Amino acid sequence: MGMKFDIIDESGRIVLPAEVRKSMRWDENIKAEIWVNPQQNEIVIKKHVEACVCCGKTKNLKAFDKKHICEGCQKKIIKI
What is the reported pTM? Predict the structure, then answer.
């Protein structure tokens, strides 16, 4: 269920209340994804999860040039 807060400041920035951040276990250094769903008149904010750029898996990732590649795709790339 949603909570009602005044979260947009005078500069148009969105402020997530401490209660919301605490309930989500988000500290100030998390990466978040934000997108608009205009059909539902909503803004969605989701904690970012690193994923393989090839297949989308989130386990056994290695970073390369600010991208992530899973172990399975690494093996496929090596074979090429």
Answer: 0.58
